[in-house]
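Tutorial sheet, problem 5. The three components below are modelled jointly, 938 residues in total.
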Amino acid sequence: MKKNNLKAWLYLLPAILFLGVFMVYPLIDVCVYSVEENYNFASQSFTGIGAGNFRYVLSDPYFVQALKNTFIIVAITVPLSTGFALLISLGLSSIKALRNTFQTVYFLPYVTNTLAVGLVFMILFKKTAYTDGMVNLLINKFGGASVDFIEGPYWAKMFVMCFYTVWVVMPFKILILTSALASVNQDYYKAAKVDGATSGRIFRKITLPMISPTVFYLIITGFIGAFKAYSDEVALFGTNLNAAGMNTIVGYVYDMLYGDSGGYPSYAAAAALILFAIVFTITYINLTFSKNKVQYM
Amino acid sequence: MKVVLENLTKRFPSRHKKGAEVIAVNHFNFEIPDGQLIGLLGPSGCGKSTTLNLISGLETPTEGKVFFGDEDVTNLPPEERGVGLVFQNYALYPHLTVEENIIFPLQNLKGAQKMSKEAMHQKAVETAKLVQIDGLMERKPKELSGGQQQRVAIARALVKIPKVLLLDEPLSNLDARLRLQTREELRRIQRDTGVTTIFVTHDQEEAMSISDLIIVMKEGVVHQIGKPQDVYDEPANLFVAQFLGTPQINVFHGEVKDGKLYIGEEAVLDVPGRKDMPVWVGIRPEGFIPDDDGPFTCRMDRVEVMGRDVSVVSTHPLMTGRNIRSIISSENRFKPGQETVRFRLKPYKVFLFDKESEERV
Amino acid sequence: MIEKKSASFSRALIYFFLAVWALIVLFPFYWMILTSLKSFASYNSEYIPRFIATDPTLENYTSAFQAVPLGRYFLNTLIFTVATTGLMMLVIIPAAFAFARLQFKGRNAVFALFLSLMMIPTELVIITNYVTIVNWNMRNTYLGLILPSVTSVFYIYLLKENFEAIPDELYQAAKVDGTSDLKYLVKVMIPICQPTVVTIIILKVIECWNSYVWPRLITYDANYFLVSNGIQEIRENGFGRENTPAMMAAVVVISIPLIVLFLVFRKKIMAGVSRGGTKG
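Model answer (C-alpha cells):
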C-alpha cells in the first residue's frame, strides 16, 4: 500500500498544534522562567540568569510550610487509602448480596465536584457561633471536648484534610482493586482449598501476589496524585491557604502566579520544577522497588 | 473477464535481516481464462495470499504486470479494478446489519454509477437471494452462523458485479460438514454468475473437488497448472506429487537399471527405454495390488479397515516417511500374524523423479 | 456446626464493615440535601442539628439562583464542557486514526514523542499557559478556558490502541469497495469503537465539570466563572452573610448533573474509569 504522508500529517496537525503550543513550548519555557532572576511580569524583564529563584523558593517559609503539609498528606493518605481500599475490596469480593449496591455507593465521590462536597465537610467539622458542628457533637457524646477543625489547631485541620482526601481518592482505588480481585482465576482458590490452605494463607500466598501489580500501580499513582494536592485544600479552607497554614506545593505555585500574592512566574516555575523533581524521584524509587518486589505471573 | 499475470514478482524487506529481501511471488506467469473457477493451492506461506492481493490491488508488484482482459490494471487502486474480495474471517462490519453490509460497496459508487436507495435495496435483495440469505437481512453478523456469515461476505463481494471474484481461504473457518456443503454452494454460485473466480486454499482436496483449474505454488513459484485430475495423474515434480492426494504418495529410493525399476534388490516394474539412473519412486496408495507372487515385498505392520476399502500399513527399508500406506479393496483378506506382504504395482500410478532436481523423468 | 457459625459471624462482620463505609460515603450527601431543605432561621436555631427537616422548604434553591449567579455558572460550565469535549474529539480522533491506520514517514518517532508527553504533569506547563492566555488577551473568555484542554495524549493513545484492534481485513475490504479513508473512519471505525469513544467522552465531561484550577487562574470576572470557582466565590463572598442552607442548595444543584449521569451510565462509567481513568 502506498504511503500517504501528506494526508497523515493533515490528520495529525490539530493535535500537534495544540500539543506544541500548550505542552512542548511551556515545558521549555518553564525551565527558562525558573532561571531568570528577578523577573518582572509587567515589563517582562529580568536581571540575570541563575539559581536565585530556587534559593528564594526554598528559603520562603510559606514554601517550607507547603512542603511539610504536602509530605504529611502524602505520608498519611497514600498508605491509609490504599490499605483501606484493599480491605473494602476484599470484603466486596467475598459477598454476593448487595454487592452492586455497595459498589455504586462507594463510587459516588468520584463523580462529585470536590469543591462543592468539600463545603459539606467544612460545615460538618466547623465550629461556629450557632453550632459546634456534627462531628463535635459526636465527640461530645463520647465525652470529648469540641475542637474547631477548620480554623483551630494544626493537627485538627490536618486530620480533616487527610480524612477528606481519603474520602475523595477511595472510589478509584476500590474500583481498580475490585476488578483486579475479580480477574484472579478462581481455579487457584479451588486448588488452594483442596490443598487445605487457610484463608489467611490463601490471601498472603495467592491473592496478594496476584494483585500486587495493581496495588503498586495504585501506590504510584496515589503518590503522584497526593503530591499534587490542592483543590481539596481549597474546598475545606478557602483560597487563602497560606493564612490557614494549610498550603501545598501546587497551591504555592498558583499563589505565586495569581491573586494577591501573584505575578511571580519565575518563582512559580522554580517551585513547579522542585515538585516535579520530587515526584519523579519518588516514582523512580517506587518503580525500582516494585521491580524487585512485585511478583508477576 | 480473463486475468493475465505477466512476470509478476513481489519482494518484501525481510523482517529478520536488515537489507535482505523475502520473495513472496517469483516471476508468476499465467493466463486465467474467462468465467472459470481457479484454485490457488499451496502450503501456508507459499505466497498465494500475496498473489491474491496483487490481483486485487491491495499490494503493488515489485515487477511485472496484471491485466484484466486487455486492460493493464497494475497501477490501479483496488477500488478502480472492480474486484470482489472475500476474506478468510469474512471481515463483515460488525455494527451493520446484513443488508447494510451488502449495500456498503454500492454506497461508494460515484457519478453516473450512483444508485438510488431503492435500487440499492433491490440489488441487495437480488444478491442475497443468489446466496440464499434473503431471510436474514436485518440480522447483525454476530447473530449468524459461520456458514451464513460466509454467504454474506460473498454477497457483499458480488453485489457490485465484479470482474473478478477473489476468495482467501473461504472455507477454512467452517467445520468439516459445513465445508463440504459450502464448497458445492460456491461452485453453484460461480456457475450461476459466470464471474471469473480465484480462490486460495491450502486444502488440496477442496481445490481438487471444485476447481476448473488448479495452480500449485510453493515458495513464491508456480509448480504446476492444470485441470485437477491431470495434475493428480501427471504431477510435474515430487513436491506436487506429495502435495496432492490423501493418503500421501509413498516415496522410495530406487534405481533404473536395464529397463527395469529397482527398489533395493527387487525389480518391481518394467520401465523399457528409460535411462539408467538413481530415482525417487513415487507410488500412489491406490497403485498397489496385493499378490502373493508380486515382485515387491514389504514388512506388514497392520491393516486398517475403512469399510469399502482397507488400508494396509507396511514398512520397507528404502521408504521415506514413517510408513507405506496402500489402499486396496476390502475383498482382499490377510492372515493374522502375516509378517510380510507382496504387491504388484499399477504402472500409471508409479512416478519417477530425478534424484537431484526432483523433476519428473 | 461451629465452623458454620463462625463463617456466618465473619460474614456479618464484613457486612457491618462495608455498611459503615457506605454510611461515611453517603452521609455528606444526605447532610447537604437535608441542610438545603432547612430554612435559614431553623438551621441557625438548631444548636444540635436535627436529622430530618421538620419544615422542609425550597426557598434556598430560589435564593441560590437569585442572590448569586448560579445559573450563569451553570451555563458557563455547560458551554465549557460541551465545547471542550467536542473540540477534543475532533482533535484526537483524526490523530488516533493517523497513528493506527496510515503509513507515513516518522510515524513511530512522532508517536514516541506523544507518549513521552504523557508523563508531563499539568502543573509544570500551566505557568506558561497562563502567561500565554494573558498575552493573547483571552482572560475571561470561553476560548481562554477551552483551548489548553482540547488535547489529551492519553486519550489519543487509548483510541489508537482500540482502532488498531480492528482487523486489517475490514480496512482492505473497504478499500476494495472504494471507501475513502475518511468515510472508513466515520462509518466503520468510530461505530465499532463506540464504547471507547463514549468512555472518553464521559471521562472528559467529568473532568470538565470538576475542573477548578484553570478556570480560577484564567477568570476573575464572575460572568465567566464555572461551577467550581463559582461555589468558591459563593463561599467567600456569597449571600452577604453566612447562609449555610442556601450554600448547600447550590452544592446540591452543582452535584446533581454528574450524579444523574453516573446513575444512568453506571456500568459504562465504572468500566471506563477502571480502564483509563485517574482522579485529578
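Marking note: The first strand of chain A starts at residue 36 and ends at 37. Full credit if you identified this.
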